[in-house]
Amino acid sequence: MRKTLGGRQPSEGFLSHGAVRDGNALVSKDGVAAWWLLLEHLTEDDLEMLEALLVDEELARAERFHFERDRQIYIAAHGICRGLLSYHLGQPAKNWRFSIEDHGKPELISPAGGPRIRVNISHTRGLAAVALTSEHDIGVDVEWRHRDAMVDELAQRMFAESERRDVQRACKEKKLDIFLAYWTLKEAYVKAIGKGLSQPLDAFEFDLNGLNITFLDRSADDPDHWHFERYQPGPDHLMALAIRHPAKANLRVEAGPAPMEFLRNLAQA
Ligand SMILES: CC(C)(COP(=O)(O)OP(=O)(O)OC[C@H]1O[C@@H](n2cnc3c(N)ncnc32)[C@H](O)[C@@H]1OP(=O)(O)O)[C@@H](O)C(=O)NCCC(=O)NCCS
């Protein structure tokens, strides 16, 4: 498994093949690309540029947020989603269309004749992320590390037994991070399968050391077909990725900050 972690300059393009310009899909079924964007790194111009990538329906939705920070992170998430698609598929950002599945998961209406492109976004206070692959189920989740949550109670109510114990035993300083480590992985999985929170979170459990999943009903899903990644995009955020893949040893995951220069050029195109 080859992967590239973050840590590069936000303005730098980091995918090995560079941006696509002529409309050929370069996302293979073994390749996964993820971008994140920290709101604190954005100028007003950057936000306007990201806004210019959105379609009317998204702009109207952005206007309906009560809080400016929610509006901004929504714009950032949908802007980098369109940007990542254009980076890989070489079409204008506004071209992308989505259908909404049964439990609310948006699925890209993939370009005719090409592979099925799979994409998922997540946004939380101060951070947006997007993950993309071809054919296979993919989910991403990001969380803010300073959430004021009743984590023991939440874990008790929603997690599997080993996870509940782990959260309960954790010292005060580590408790929220351990809770969020499980939470992001669980959300990434339920988003990858498209069920969201209609999927009970206590029906499967994670081992944080090996990032392995176990299904309490063994016939429910195949743990060997799931690959998980965890990242810390900045001091205040945690992120997890879930990818279903029949031969996960072949997976190549490239994750890092969204390349602002590419996005700027895209917005001006
Ligand atoms: C919708 C849900 C799948 C994820 O919600 P979330 O963690 O609040 O939100 P995220 O930012 O990670 O993801 C939202 C995005 O996922 C996508 N999405 C929506 N429904 C989805 C589904 N069923 N499956 C996968 N993706 C979905 C959408 O693109 C959505 O963004 P948009 O509304 O701007 O288009 C669902 O699991 C949920 O409601 N979770 C509750 C969140 C919560 O209680 N958090 C407390 C943490 S302590």
Overall description:
The protein is of the alpha+beta class. It has a single domain, classed as Alpha-Beta Complex (Ribosomal Protein L22, Chain A), CATH 3.90.470. Helix content is 32%, strand content 26%. A 5-stranded mixed β-sheet has the order 1-12-2-6-5, covered by helices on one side. The chain has a 3-stranded antiparallel β-sheet with strand order 7-11-10. Strand 3 and strand 4 form a beta hairpin. The two termini are 35 Å apart. 41% of the residues are buried. Coenzyme A (COA) binds next to helix 3, strand 5, strand 7 and helix 6.
Count of folded domains: 1
Q: What is the CATH-assigned architecture? A: Alpha-Beta Complex
Biggest sheet layout? 5 strands, mixed
Strand order of the largest sheet: 1-12-2-6-5
SS elements, strand count: 12
Q: Beta-strand level of the residues, as a percent range?
A: 25-35%
Low-confidence stretches: 1-17, 21-25
What would you give as the CATH superfamily? 4'-phosphopantetheinyl transferase domain
Question: Which hetero compounds are present in the coordinates?
Answer: coenzyme A
Task: Kindly provide the name of the CATH class.
Answer: Alpha Beta
Silhouette: globular
The average pLDDT score comes to 90
The CATH topology is Ribosomal Protein L22, Chain A
- Following the backbone from N to C, one meets helices and strands in this order, namely EEHHHEEEEEHHHEEEEEH
- The amount of helix comes to 25-40%
